[in-house]
Structure formats: C-alpha cells, structure tokens
Amino acid sequence: MESWDVVVVGSGVAALRAAIAALDAGATVSIFDDKGPGSAQARADDTGIAASLSESDFHEHLSDTITVGQGLETPASKSRCASSVTTLIELERWGLNLRRDSSGTPVLTAQPGHSTPRVATVGDVTGRETLRILEEQCMKRGIPRRHDIRPLQLVVENQRVRGLIILDIQTGIIAPIQAKAVIFAGDGHDGLWTESGSSGSKTTLAYRAGARLSGMEFMGWHPMKIKDSEMFLSLSLLDTGARLRKANGEDIELVGGLTEACRSMGDDEHVLDARGVPPSVRPWFNTSAQILADRFGIDLWTTVIPVTPSPRYSIGGVAVDNEGRALIGENLWLTGLYAAGASSDSGMHGSDILAGNWTLDELLTGSSAGTSAGHWASSAKHGGRDILMDASFEVEAEIEAMSEVKEGMTVGALSASLRRTMNANMGLTRDVIGLTTAATQIEQLANSPIRLSDDSPVMNTELITALDAGCMIELARAMVSAAESREESRGSHHRSDYPEAGDQNMPILISIDGMTL
C-alpha cells in the first residue's frame, strides 16, 4: 500500500504552497489532483496580491480588510495582512517578475475596497505566474505530482485520518493511499453557479468525514466576466486607464468588497472600455488581448467588451484554526486533516472579498497548513491499514452500483437544474421564499438517481461529472441552510427580507448531521 506522511489534494496556489511547506518541515509529501497538468492555470485569479509595500505598516490594509469583511473576520486577518510583504518578497526571490515603474519600484494598483494603491500584479497573469513559480519550487524539491487521480473518500478511524481512497481515472483502478495527514486545497465551489467552475469536491470529502463547514452563506463575485463566456478580465485594467461603463456610456466606480461592488452595478448592461490604456502599458495585458482576438475576434484596445458580474471566490469552506487544522468542535481537531485556500474558511475574508486578498490568503493558508502538517506528521505514526482496505472495497462496490442505474436523470440535466436553482435563489440577493424553494428543489435533485451512459471504469469522465454533481448537491444544501439561518444582510450575503445588518457576528457552522450551529 502506498504511504506518505502528508498527501496534498489539489493543484492550485494553496496546494503547491502547502506541499512546499510540508516538505520543508521534514515530511514526505505527494500531490494528488483529479485534473490534468496545467489545468490550475485556467482557474488562477489574476487580480493581484495585496501587500503594504508603500506603507509604514500593515494596519491600513487590515482596516480595509475588516471594513469589507463587516465584522466576521478573525485574528487570521491580522496575521495575513502582517505577512503580506514578506510573502511577496519570497515570491520575488523565487522568480516572480512583478510589474515595475521606471525607478524599479513595483507598481501598486488601486482596486475596489482599498484606501490606497496596494495590489501588486504581473499584468493580467499574476495568478498563473505565481503558479509557475510554485511549480518550479516543487520540482526543485522533487515533490511528486500525480494528475488524473480522483479522491473518493477520506478514511477516518476514531476521528483520526488514516488516508484516502482514490480512483485512477486513466486506468479505472480504485486503491487506498495511507497518509498521516491530508491537506485539502481545492479550487472552491463556484461550479454551483457556472458551468466552468469547480465542484467543491475536496471540501465535500472533509464534510462527509465529519469536519464542520463555515461561511457557506457567503460567495465572492467578480465584476468583469466577459458576457456569454467563462473568461474573467483582470481588475488591474481599471487602474491603467480602462473604464467600466454602463451601456449608455456612464462610468461606474466600483467600491467596497467585490461582491458589494457587483451588487451596486445592478441589472444594467455593462462594458469594459480599454481604449484609453496607454500603449506603453498594454504589453502587460497581452494575454487577455490575445485570447480575446483568438476566441472572440475582438480587439481589446479598439472595441468595448460586454461584461457581467459572476460568482468567482468561494469564501466558505472547512472551518479551520490558524494552522489550517479542520475543526469538528470547539478547539477539537479532526486529527490529521487540514484545509487551505478555497477549501477552507480561514476567517480572513469575513463576509466579502477585498481585491488582492484572495491569492495572498491562498499562499498563507497553504504555508500554514503545510508547515503544521509536516511538523505533526514527523512524530506521528501510520495506521489503519485494515480499515483502508475495507473502505477501498466498499467504495469500489458503490462505484459499480452507480453504473447499474438504468433509469434516472442524466448528469448533465441534473447539474444544469442545480445551477438554475442556485442562480435563481442564491445570487446577489436572496429572500425566504427563494431559499425555501431552493431547499425543496435541491432535495428533489438529491433524491433523483443519475443514469450513466458509460459503464467503463477507464477514463470515464461522465462518472467524474456525476461524482462532482453529488458533491455540489451536498454543498448546496449547506449553503441554503446557512443562508436561511443568517437573517440579516452582511457583505456578500444580502437578504431583501432582512436588508439591514443584525447582530449575528459569529460564523454559522454546518455539520454533516444537519445541525446548524
């Protein structure tokens, strides 16, 4: 049986940073992900990295984060903001090439919610360049990465992690992987609203194993998704001369948290007008310009681009402490389980996203979880070999049973129905009628069997999509339950029937047994 001290599940910024930190802490580490090589680059956020480079300290950054979070931030906010400059310096030392001015100083952009320019960028490829740097560091350390590996179950014995049951998508083989610690660092759950989004499968595995979820009523939106596409434009364009406008030509100024800014846009048609961006700056946005030209036949520099708000940032996730340890009760850890990045609710964002804090939080939650897991695993012992083997056989039987269903919905129809429900009732504004409707429709979908047309175990992408749909249904339940429980409006959670902020200043925790705490 394959065994590791620490297994990291994911392929984005948080996952790679966690693997680096765990190895540097002395553990043996492997990275598993169900996507192919390079897939994480399409999901990377190119907004930039917030850091107090031009300020005497981090307190203004913290103040802006708290203002946007509207009272639901945790002490993690302070530590994250305080570490922003050293984090950026580390990335530069590893080779990140930030956009700089003529004096060699990093150019800091003014983005929504910031009281001063604070977001460092690599033009429109900040997230992808950050990923490239972290991939290089993983290769230098010899950290193995295995793609097309789908985790099916987190195996726990007496509230202690023993490992994972995985499906090798290319071969169809189901096998156990023994691990002292597991770090879930996925891409979030925006797939509940958008077809190209992520399913939250890593978060769901932790949830099924007993970890609590926190902040599920909150979802961060991005104001500049190209209409009728799955492409987002970098917010840093707005600080270079581009303008966000209504279709009638009226300029729009984005203020506050990103979701709050999206809500202020209303139902009007909007366009991005980048014709005013100086030619000297345009090379930093060549990637966006080239994609627009190749995919849509549009010239970014001569044509206005129709844009619309869209869900992008998963604020809620596994409730964790400052070390990324997954919680199952007050100060009680599901031993050996960690979560980072979009799989976790670190507490930094509170109820909405401050531009530039997303990638910063991914880097720091990954580092914290990896360091803690590496140190802990170095003194822990492997165990649970028999329970891992038994779980492997049980999961294999469950997968075989899925292929035997002859009547039911197709996975495409079920996923589309779920997205329609979430967009209609869990969007920028909610109310009790919509939430009740959503809960009813989600339960109907949960009780609808999925009929697969492909019963082959090898490269069965339909099976993977069906597994994703099951994960999304469980998370949708948790989100609606949390939204029903928060009878107020705060940050990205706006209830038209409770339009004012109330006194619900504590996170709403959801457990797999249906309890809302």
In short:
With 517 residues, the chain is α/β, with parallel strands linked by helices. Helix content is 35%, strand content 18%.
Task: Give an overview in words.
There is one protein chain. With 517 residues, the protein is α/β, with parallel strands linked by helices. Among the domains are: 222-311, Succinate dehydrogenase/fumarate reductase flavoprotein, catalytic domain (Flavocytochrome C3, Chain A, domain 1, Alpha-Beta Complex); 388-510, Fumarate reductase/succinate dehydrogenase flavoprotein-like, C-terminal domain (Methane Monooxygenase Hydroxylase, Chain G, domain 1), CATH 1.20.58.100. 35% of the residues lie in helices and 18% in strands. Strands 1, 2, 6, 7, 8, 9, 16 and 17 form an 8-stranded mixed β-sheet that branches. α6 crosses α13 and α11 (411-425) packs antiparallel against α12. It is globular, with a radius of gyration of 22 Å.
Strand content: 15-25%
Low-confidence regions? none
**Kindly, what is the distance between the CA atoms of the first and last residues, rounded to a whole number of angstroms?**
39 Å
| Overall geometric form | globular
As a percent range, the share of helical residues equals 25-40%
Which CATH class of the domain at 388-510 applies here?
A: Mainly Alpha
Radius of gyration: 22 Å
According to CATH, the fold-level topology of the domain at 388-510 is Methane Monooxygenase Hydroxylase, Chain G, domain 1
**Beta-strand segment tally:** 19
Query: What is the architecture of the domain at 388-510 at the second tier of CATH?
Result: Up-down Bundle
Largest sheet: 8 strands, mixed
Structural class: alpha/beta
CATH-wise, what's the superfamily of the domain at 388-510? Fumarate reductase/succinate dehydrogenase flavoprotein-like, C-terminal domain
Number of helices: 13
How much is the average pLDDT? Answer: 95
